[in-house]
Design brief:
The complex is a heterodimer. Chain A has two helices and six strands, in the order H-E-H-E-E-E-E-E. Chain A is of the alpha+beta class. In chain A, a hairpin with a 5-residue loop joins strand 3 and strand 4. Classes of the chains: A alpha+beta, B alpha/beta. The interface between A and B is large, with 43 and 35 residues. The complex binds guanosine-5'-triphosphate and zinc ion (4 copies).
Chain lengths: 126, 217
């Protein structure tokens, strides 16, 4: 599965930003994952943890937030969220909640976003 | 004393791949090369179909063959005397735009008209990764079972051409190929769906005609 390459990109992004900001440590990373990305959040978190060893990220708490699915239905023009309670993680089948149709455009839910990091740095006045 | 700061990043890893994919397409367009990303299940007939197209289509063709570890498919294409780059993905389950850009360096793009990119056999992982191709052709076969489309809907939503292959053995494996066609059209009414058999030649001319239609667009 491609959790490993995603985790690698996430770790690199976080470290790059942290270094630019003269961080001594990253304490928290928040990652948003679309519910349709076919990425398993638990696996992703685990891989980020493994790849963080001996980096600025080593001690960081990894927070994963889900981004709900949004659609535009081409059949009935419904625009909005799709309940994902009964979505199978590896076989996401999206139906329009209004007309049950499947001819729809997915506008949200396919992203994998490094949203924020919290860093610790030397206080300039110290 | 330590200071804590929160930094907004908002860096979408998927968008990063999409940007690379756009760049790939610009590189292809500069050399006037039309690229087809060929995706599909393991063993569905991707390599066989591309081999047939190489023999039947009258263009200067090149191939990028993605394989998890072996160079097996790349070797098959080399027998057809076309430029081939084998891309080993290692443990990865899909090609991505960055890998494909590397392959461009080993292809005579200026002396090519049509590029087939055989993705790793997998209906799930390649879905999220644009390569910069002009169209996506998904190849599945009746031997995966006629519930394949229902089980993997996302890959069919982004497809331009869907090939339902091995219809010659549909009866033998107890699969209803027309159900597969209908399932695809429910998910994506605009897509071209073609039933084919590389054993009998059924559907091949139609596949070629449709690729050529997209090339003209
Ligand atoms: N009966 C029948 N067999 C086919 C047809 N097309 C391909 N095959 C056979 O199916 C097997 C797999 O074909 P390949 O072309 O290697 O499939 P692939 O999708 O490239 O496979 P991977 O690269 O391993 O994912 C081969 O033995 C082909 O000869 C067809 O239309 N009918
Ligand atoms: Zn994967
Ligand atoms: Zn609807
Ligand atoms: Zn193959
Ligand atoms: Zn590189």
């Amino acid at each position: 599965m491609h959790e490993l390459s995603m985790a690698d990109a996430i770790v690199k992004t976080a470290i790059e930003v942290a270094e630019k900001n003269d961080a001594q440590q990253i304490t928290e990373v928040t990652i948003e994952i679309g519910e349709l990305t076919l990425l398993n959040p638990e696996q992703l978190k685990f891989m980020v943890g493994v790849l963080s060893e001996n980096t600025l990220l080593e001690e960081a708490e990894i927070i994963i937030e889900a981004i709900p699915i949004q659609i535009n239905c081409k059949s009935c023009n419904y625009e909005g969220p799709v309940p994902s309670d009964d979505l199978d993680h590896f076989v996401p089948i999206v139906n329009c909640p209004e007309c049950e149709g499947q001819d729809l455009e997915i506008t949200k839910g396919r992203e994998c976003n490094v949203k924020t990091i919290k860093i610790e740095k030397e206080d300039e006045d110290a | 004393m330590h200071k804590i700061a929160e930094i907004e990043i908002q860096h979408d890893i998927m968008v990063a791949n999409k940007k690379l994919a756009k760049r790939n397409q610009r590189i292809l367009d500069k050399s006037d090369v039309f690229a087809v990303d060929v995706l599909g299940a393991i063993g569905s007939g991707k390599t066989s179909l591309i081999e047939t197209l190489i023999e039947k289509m009258d263009y200067k063709i090149g191939v990028i063959a993605g394989d998890v570890i072996s160079r097996f498919d790349a070797g098959r294409f080399e027998n057809h005397n076309v430029p081939v780059v084998g891309l080993n993905t290692g443990k990865e389950c899909h090609l991505d735009a960055h890998l494909v850009e590397h392959a461009f360096g080993d292809l005579p793009l200026d002396d090519m008209e049509l590029l087939f990119i055989e993705n790793v056999g997998n209906l799930i992982c390649p879905v999220d990764f644009d390569l910069g191709s002009h169209i996506r052709m998904v190849v599945i076969s009746v031997s995966e079972g006629d519930d394949t489309v229902e089980k993997h809907p996302l890959i069919f939503k982004d497809a331009d051409i869907v090939v339902i292959n091995k219809v010659d053995i549909a009866e033998a494996v107890g699969a209803d190929e027309n159900k597969m066609v209908n399932d695809v059209l429910i998910l994506n009414p605009d897509v071209v769906v073609i039933k084919s058999s590389l054993k009998t030649g059924e559907g091949i001319d139609e596949i070629i005609g449709n690729i050529e239609n997209f090339m003209k667009e």
